[in-house]
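Researcher: Let's walk through a ligand-bound prediction step by step. First, I give you the protein sequence. Second, the SMILES string for pyridoxal-5'-phosphate. Third, you return the three-dimensional complex as structure tokens. Ready?
Model: Ready.
Researcher: Here are steps one and two:
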Amino acid sequence: MSGCRTTIEAGPGTPAERAPATLIIDLGGLRDNYRKLATLCDGREVAAVVKADGYGLGAAPVATALAEAGARTFFVAQLDEALTVRAALDTHTPDCCIFVLNGLVIGAEDDYRAARLRPVLNSILEIEAWRDFNRRRDLALPAAVHVDTGMSRLGLPKDELDSLVVTPDLFDGWELSLVMSHLVCADEPDHPLNAAQLALFEEALARLPPAPASLANSSGIFLGSDYHFDQARPGVALYGVNPTPARSNPMSAVVQLRTKVLQVRQIDAPGSVGYGAAHRVEGPSRIATVGVGYADGYLRSLSGRATAWVEGSEVPIVGRISMDLTTIDVTSLPAGTVRPGTAVDLLDPRDGVDRLAAEAGTIGYEILTSLGHRYHRVYKSGNES
Ligand SMILES: *Cc1c(COP(=O)(O)O)cnc(C)c1O
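Model: Step three, the predicted complex:
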């Protein structure tokens, strides 16, 4: 490998050396974010949402780090995700509660029981199935009930809530451990739906048997203590995405994406770069190619919009992003600075995920959950920085 300088990690043939890019996940930043939200919630419980593989960052390491920061309740979307989180947490924090947001997979009740999972019951049908399972087995296992206050997606709609409250038998033989709902517009503090959902949720709580209540996602926490109830359920803010889009980001960055140059070439007008000749150079230009593309979640819609950083200098992404490759115009940097192996950062050091999302015309959630599987992943414990 003579003449090839790598600034990522020494040692040819190591996973870091072979991988096109390294995704650095700062578990210290993640824990800081959890503690920050816990402070805002001032003594109320802060659960952690780790669905979709911990928002793309790895459910097991993420859940473990959050448990170290004090989280004792976790939410996932799917049954199999819950099993992964249970396995990750079982050695150190076996007492954790894990809720499955997408509900009860009817017929799989025993899988929930065996892994001590709590279904979020989203319909009368699911409530009946959970009650009947507990009766048959002479158990009294906990579960949550989700009340729909306006999302119109999951949870008991108004008519099902009405029939639930007049059928107390539905609560027999299992433990109602949480009543929850989900905010529609929490990232728009002035949206009238926030107050409307809050009122509907309080109304529902008054009609249901007493149980801990939960309403706020990440942005909901920032709507104030009226929205905190007994438990908040943040996801995206833990991972560094701005929960207050109208204001500067109060969270710490968690993700860093560092790639390296494969090749550099000099071209001149009327040359073009990449598929469709979408970028035409106007004069002598130096183009650096990195081995990251849309197959890695570096979305094609970032073509001609995003920027990269070489030793702190911002340089534009040019031409179409292809499956495995992206091209960068490094003409503004002194000749010789950019060579094969030169490190290139693909996320803004301050507002990386949010900025990339804006450039791609999407949201930070989608950037995170699209992060590819070809990256070499490094988990920083946080004591090292
Ligand atoms: C995803 C999800 C959350 C977390 O939302 P964020 O906006 O990521 O904080 C909370 N509650 C429910 C029901 C969810 O689906």
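Researcher: And what stands out?
Model: The chain has twelve helices and 19 strands. Residues 192-207 form the longest helix (16 residues).
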